[in-house]
């Protein structure tokens, strides 16, 4: 029992040790073109996709398509086990150059937020345009595009939110969203439609 507890504690320490707080200011020259600016609230820690996947015990929903020279520059997560159900939220900061930081405010090309909970409110938005190719709803909030997707898993549901400047290509945003894999909702046999006799 002591060995199992020691292994568990070493795994937790390894995860925490790999999570570092972002430096306060990292200016990047000539960040022209479409950008999105937002704040990272307290409690988020920098990590890697591999570490997040081990933490959530699931494959992370990352896009398989990004525009040329774009890549996931930074990954942040926050786990709230005291929530009911527990909530894990992740930010993927995507750009064609390093993310610009001013305190807790960041600037990049595109942000993907993934929240694991049972809310899945993304598709319950009749005012937002349904984009069949992306499997989600697109709305315009001020000077930003926001595209919502919902996925249903065996253990927990997830909400995926992509947001970018309205200067960003709408078609590219939809293409990126369409490349994000979804978890399939497993229907029971009783929910299947029956044929008439």
How many distinct beta strands? 12
For the largest beta-sheet, the strand count, sense and barrel status come to: 8 strands, antiparallel
CATH homologous superfamily label: MucB/RseB, C-terminal domain
Count every helix, treating DSSP H or I runs of 4 or more residues as helices: 3
Low-confidence segments: 5-21, 184-197
Structural class: alpha+beta
The largest beta-sheet arranges its strands as: 3-4-5-8-12-11-10-9
Order of helices and strands: HEEEHEEEEEEEEEH
Calculate the mean pLDDT score and round it.
76
Helix-residue proportion:
10-25%
Terminus-to-terminus distance: 59 Å
Instruction: State the domain count.
Output: 1
Per CATH, the class reads Alpha Beta
Keywords:
single chain, 197 residues, alpha+beta, Phosphorylase Kinase, domain 1, disordered C terminus
Topology:
Blueprint: H1 2-17, E1 25-26, E2 36-39, E3 45-47, H2 49-56, E4 71-80, E5 87-95, E6 100-102, E7 105-108, E8 110-117, E9 129-131, E10 136-141, E11 144-152, E12 157-165, H3 170-178
Fold and architecture overview:
There is one protein chain. The chain has a single domain (33-184), classed as Phosphorylase Kinase, domain 1, CATH 3.30.200.100. It is 17% helix and 36% strand. The protein is built from 3 helices and 12 strands. The strands form 2 sheets. The chain has an 8-stranded antiparallel β-sheet, with helices on one face. A hairpin with a 2-residue loop joins β10 and β11 (144-152). The longest helix is centred in the first third of the chain and has 16 residues, at 2-17. The termini are far apart. Residues 5-21 and 184-197 have low confidence and may be disordered.
């Amino acid at each position: 029992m002591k060995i199992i507890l020691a292994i568990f504690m070493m795994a937790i320490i390894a995860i925490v040790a790999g999570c570092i707080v972002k430096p306060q200011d990292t200016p990047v020259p000539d960040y022209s073109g479409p950008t999105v600016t937002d704040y990272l609230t307290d409690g988020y820690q920098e990590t890697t996709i591999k570490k997040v996947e081990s933490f959530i015990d699931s494959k992370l929903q990352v896009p398989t398509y990004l525009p040329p020279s774009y890549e996931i520059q930074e990954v942040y997560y926050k786990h709230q086990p005291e929530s009911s159900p527990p909530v894990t939220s992740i930010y993927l900061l995507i750009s064609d150059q390093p993310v610009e930081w001013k305190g807790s405010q960041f600037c990049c090309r595109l942000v993907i937020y993934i929240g694991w909970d049972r809310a899945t409110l993304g598709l319950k938005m009749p005012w937002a345009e349904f984009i069949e190719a992306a499997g989600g709803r697109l709305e315009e909030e001020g000077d930003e595009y926001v595209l919502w997707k919902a996925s249903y898993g065996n253990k927990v549901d997830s909400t995926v939110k992509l947001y970018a400047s309205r200067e960003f290509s709408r078609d590219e945003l939809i293409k990126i969203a369409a490349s994000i894999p979804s978890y399939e909702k497993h229907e029971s046999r009783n929910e299947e439609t029956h044929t008439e006799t």
